[in-house]
Design a protein that fits this description.
By secondary structure, this protein is α+β, with helices and mostly antiparallel strands. The protein has two helices and six strands, in the order E-H-E-E-H-E-E-E. Pfam families: RRM_1.
């Protein structure tokens, strides 16, 4: 299942996002979206988790959780 993670702090790293989701299951891919001009985070990422149940638990556990002073939003990517 591919998840969209929004409202990330600009200082949050791809490694930190991966660690958050790995606590709930196996992560095959984690991509922090960067601005091409500046190389800085755009504040959202995609996380791919192959196990639907683990992904559902991660979504429920992490949606609206405070990470680096921001309340992140997690939903299924379209």
């Amino acid at each position: 299942m591919k998840l969209l993670v929004r409202n990330l702090s600009r200082s949050t790293t791809e490694q930190e996002i991966r660690q958050l989701f790995t606590a709930h299951g196996y992560v095959t891919e984690c991509t922090l979206v960067l601005d091409q001009a500046t190389g800085k985070s755009k504040g959202f990422a995609f996380v791919e988790m192959p196990d639907e149940k683990e992904a559902a638990v991660a979504l429920k556990s992490l949606h609206e959780k405070r990470i680096a002073k921001n309340k992140i939003r997690v939903k299924v990517a379209q």
